[in-house]
Amino acid sequence: MKLTRQELLNNPERAVTLIGMSGAGKTYLSCRLEKWGWRNYSCDYEIGSKYLKKELDAFANAQELSAENISVLHEYLGKLGNPVRGGYDLDIFQKRQKAYYDAEVKALLEMGNVMDRGRGSFVHDSTGSLCEIEDEEVLHDIGQRTLFVYLKTDKESEQIVLQRALDYPKPLFFPKAFLLQNIDEYLIEEGLESVNQMEPDGFLRWVFLRLFEARKPKYQRLADLYGVTIPASAFADLSSSEEFVDIIANHLDDAGQVAVSL
């Protein structure tokens, strides 16, 4: 929702959706806010604990799933490439990608009901793939109920995120057309004949920068439609819920946001 600075400050029950790339600080901030009394809707946790629970129960560490630890969900998504090196073939990989996407949509649709069942300030710790949701109605509904706050990384922070992705490549969600196009380009560049010849971590390292750049304008579009863009670094060393709200309020004021309906 579009808000003015004063509207945000005057409302005792704030509702915020944090958006941005993995590593921007969404989960860190959400968990901090939860400790300060906010209700935390971790979309990845909801996906894993409800909508993909049966699938994740097959993994040994499924019980470790939490808002701060979604490693079992990454394990389920898996990496594309040579099965001998721990990769999935394209068919299995795409089926799990679709299952994750469908589960994310369900979690997003349920979020409104969760908001209605409780009181107090609410933070939606969105997935990094929120910007890939194709159903504009789903995004619009969230945008009408919460203020989107895009945690935009600066050049220095981007390098940290990118280096982390190179050092510890982790499974990600890819839009189908993006995935297939980049598979073709990777195979040509590496002189490979099939997906099963790809080194899983090698492909993830290669494709991450492309995905990172492709998502930037998508996050920005959502922020422009439903909220505000704030440097992720502005929330470093956050000491209180009030400080969090003040930072957002100051950026709303600076941006000259125009209020719509609450």
Structural notes for this entry:
This protein is an alpha/beta fold and 262 residues long. The chain has one domain: 3-Layer(aba) Sandwich (Rossmann fold). Helix content is 55%, strand content 9%. It has eleven helices and five strands. It has helices at residues 5-10, 26-35, 43-51, 53-56, 71-77, 90-116, 136-145, 155-167, 176-190, 200-226, 241-255, and strands at residues 15-19, 39-42, 122-125, 147-152, 227-231. The N and C termini lie close together (7 Å). The model is unreliable at 254-262 (pLDDT under 50).
Jot down its keywords:
262 residues, alpha/beta, Rossmann fold, 5 strands, 55% helix, disordered C terminus
Number of strands: 5
Total domain units: 1
Look at the helices and sheets and give the structural class: alpha/beta
* CATH fold category name: Rossmann fold
How do the strands line up in the largest sheet? 2-3-1-4-5
Calculate the mean pLDDT score and round it. 92
What is the rounded distance between the termini?
Answer: 7 Å
> Helicity, in percent?
40-55%
User: Which range does the strand content fall in?
Assistant: 5-15%
CATH domain class name: Alpha Beta
Order of helices and strands: HEHEHHHHEHEHHHEH
Shape: globular
The CATH architecture assignment turns out to be 3-Layer(aba) Sandwich
The low-pLDDT segments are 254-262
Classified in CATH, the superfamily is P-loop containing nucleotide triphosphate hydrolases
| Main sheet properties | 5 strands, parallel
Number of helices: 11
Radius of gyration: 19 Å
In oligomeric terms, what are we looking at?
Answer: single chain
